[in-house]
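Retro notes
What went well: the complex prediction finally ran end to end.
Inputs used:
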Amino acid sequence: MKLSTLLLRLMLILAAAFVVLPLLWTLLNAFKTNADLLVSTPKLFFQPVWDNMSYVLNRRSVARALTNSLIICTSAVVLGAVLGIPAAYVIARFKNRLTAEAQFFVLSLRFLPPVAIAIPMLVIWLGLDLYDTRLSLIVTYLIVTTSITIWLSIPAFEGVSLHVEEAARVDGLGPYATFFRIALPIVRFQVFGAVAFSFVLVWNEFLLAMMLTTSKAKTLPIIASEMSQLGMNVPWGILNAAVVLLSLPPLILLGVMASGLNAAFSKKTDQG
Amino acid sequence: MATVECRGIRKVYGSVEVMHDFNLKIDDHEFVVFLGPSGCGKSTMLRMIAGLEEISSGDLLIGGQRMNDRDPGDRGIAMVFQNYALYPHMSVRENIVFGLERAGIAKGAINERLAPVVEALGLGIYLSRKPTELSGGQQQRVAIARAMIKTPEVFLFDEPLSNLDAKLRGSLRVEIARLHRDLKTTSIYVTHDQLEAMTLADKIVLMKDGRIEQMGTPEEIYQSPATLFAAGFIGTPNMNFMQLQALNGEIGDSGARFKAPFAIRPGPVTVGIRPGAFQLTDEGGGLRGRVERNEFHGETRLVTLRNNSHEISIAVPAATAIKEGDVVGIDVAAHELHLFDPETEKRLEVHKVA
């Protein structure tokens, strides 16, 4: 192996360690007792305990927040995809003043600091008597999921050859069939990536959830943050367990997505 | 199979008219080639026939029925695109049968129709592959198969060979000719390549700036080009043009003199002569000049002659002993002269003599 290759490998390993080690540390700490945690030399080998996890999982507030998070994020993402993917296709395919403005408007939704959205939203939901409900949070999150899905799907649809769609028209497909049978299947991986990314964004969302919920509709990030305010002693173990639990769904999603992408790429290299 | 008829078709983008009053009748079984330089409107015309572009005014009839307002899928056409336009997410087999499945044809019938098409284009071993795993020539074969299996009334080809390398282009061109001989489906083929046009066409429609410049069999267009443009566009190497004066049954100036093929009104005239029409003479000749360039092309040599007023390319057999700097004379049979009116750029014919 050449020296330069060796150095590059080393740098890659270092970079990977930067990302992986803190996560690994969190995972380990989730299974430590406070006695193992609060030592000056961090322990790699210890007697793992399930106490922290079971404390987190058995709290009613956590169970409810997990349900809330799953329902709210899934609904917002699915609705965002249903609205956003066809919108992205139209913006990509029909270039005119209106769609150009629409595209910019969608992007501009992301310019505003979330606080600027949160305060008027708070007032609106209070006025509609929907404050602290799942519905209010789903609709609010739709701003995030729809705009991200649209924004990331437009370039994907623009990459579909116009001639392929024309061939489909010659094959007797109308505009809807062309979208569902031709354009969407061609860009499915990119669009799936966009949707998954929008899920991660709302799953981790904190500020809007904080301002728009008080008890019933609290999501997991809110509950996790509350764990640190349990008393004078910071419950490190419990906090770590909550973080692990919070990280699992996006990681699982990422895993599914990665295997899907891998399948797409490896198929090409197999026979190409 | 069907006839295609264009009656006064126009295409307008905004305030710009790109197709002016296009009239054409294509007979059943006929193979018609739209030929012209890029921007002449040949592809636009084909896309209007396909239904991919709207017709601004005029009537399009396929098989005697007006098609202006029908969707591309309902016109009884099949189209082959320049960049193949295969569905990248489907296998070769799915690409070929997709149109039939959409049309609701039973599985058994589809398989029955698939076999001979796959056989004709030699696609048997590729059926389960994805288009991206095929070469350009194979992809275009799949696209032709996809068009063929629909047994359309009319085949439309939009520069199908332009993206292929020269060798493949030649072999696939022969294949398209063979398929047409077997199927006899009315076909319209767009190209800027005159070789494709000459070898494939029953009738060439030569176009320029959104108008038909000349229409006829390849022989007609080659032997009696109707305009200066047609004369210059068809034929390789290019035709020679000279601005000469007609006087007393002769056409010439200080550097060239030819016998007029027919009585012609005195005055300026544009003369076109194909490089292959000349005979070399050591002495005399209608035009004498010094050999300036002598290119060996294999079968022939392309020799450039120059004298004080003209520069002429002539094609001679490769074995001809000739070298740069030689002074030679050339003669042309009177019937090989193509005469054009310098004003209108139209061909001068016997019956138009003043």
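What we learned: The mean pLDDT of chain B is 92.
What to try next: split runs per interface for comparison.
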